[in-house]
Write a structure and sequence with these properties.
The longest helix is centred in the N-terminal third of the chain and has 58 residues. Strand 3 and strand 4 form a beta hairpin. The termini are far apart. This protein has a six-stranded antiparallel β-sheet with strand order 3-4-8-7-6-5, with helices on one face. The protein has a two-stranded antiparallel sheet with strand order 1-2. By secondary structure, the chain is an alpha+beta fold. The protein contains three helices and eight strands, in the order αββαββαββββ.
């Protein structure tokens, strides 16, 4: 009888031990699962927190009502600064403008020679046509209403010769005047001249400027004197 009771007690203990071991195992598994969820959840929250922080930093800060305040994109202060810079830039341009105008006026006020325009000619007589924008009237000793005169020794004739010498660069004493004629109007003349050796030959087109005298307006460099006048 005592043996049966001992056997029953032993079985009960074994059964209790198995249940206890199972419970211990279940508790251990729960602890592992809980720990794993804690670590995993913490990493997720850290990652999400970083993303949220990045979003807030990019989009702006939170306002008093919890809404987003736009990030600073150069608002009124920036615009004001830009306006100030624009005004400064305009002021600088205005300050520099007078200097620019002065530079633009320098060529007109200087004694630099004008532009010489050379145009080749297809004519057998004329080699090229020359226009010098620096040419000016030579001055005159005549007064009153001007009348073009083609008589040697007359002051108007002498001033024509002087103007032709001025245009060609040939001194009057070394220049041969072959012919002087009307240039297509009462105040226009054309003269054919050359050097003494005929190495340089020209047709000189002149126009009268009231109160200032004859002015060269065109120079034809000639290949030959035949047919030139």
């Amino acid at each position: 009888m005592e043996e049966q009771n001992f056997s029953r007690v032993a079985r009960n203990r074994q059964k209790s031990n198995r249940i206890l071991n199972i419970l211990i195992g279940v508790v251990f598994v729960l602890i592992v699962i809980t720990a794993a969820s804690i670590f995993t959840g913490g990493d997720d929250r850290a990652a999400n927190g970083g993303n949220e922080a990045g979003t807030e930093q990019a989009g702006g800060t939170s306002g008093p009502d919890g809404g987003k305040v736009p990030a600073d994109d150069g608002g009124e202060d920036s615009d004001a600064a830009g306006d100030d810079e624009s005004e400064d830039g305009e002021a600088t341009s205005e300050e520099k403008a007078p200097d620019s105008d002065k530079r633009g006026e320098e060529p007109e006020e200087s004694d630099q020679p004008g532009k010489v325009i050379r145009t080749p000619s297809e004519s057998g007589v004329v080699d090229e046509t020359i226009v010098d924008t620096s040419w000016k009237p030579i001055g005159t000793g005549q007064s009153g209403e001007h009348v073009s005169v083609y008589e040697k020794g007359h002051i108007d004739w002498q001033e024509k010769v002087k103007a032709m010498s001025y245009a060609t660069g040939i001194p009057e004493k070394e220049m041969i005047v072959w012919y002087v004629k009307n240039g297509g109007g009462p105040q226009k003349s054309i003269g054919t001249v050359s050097t003494g050796d005929k190495s340089e030959k020209y047709n000189v087109h002149l126009e009268w400027v009231d109160g200032e005298g004859w002015m060269p307006v065109r120079l034809d460099k000639l290949n030959t004197l035949e047919g030139a006048y």
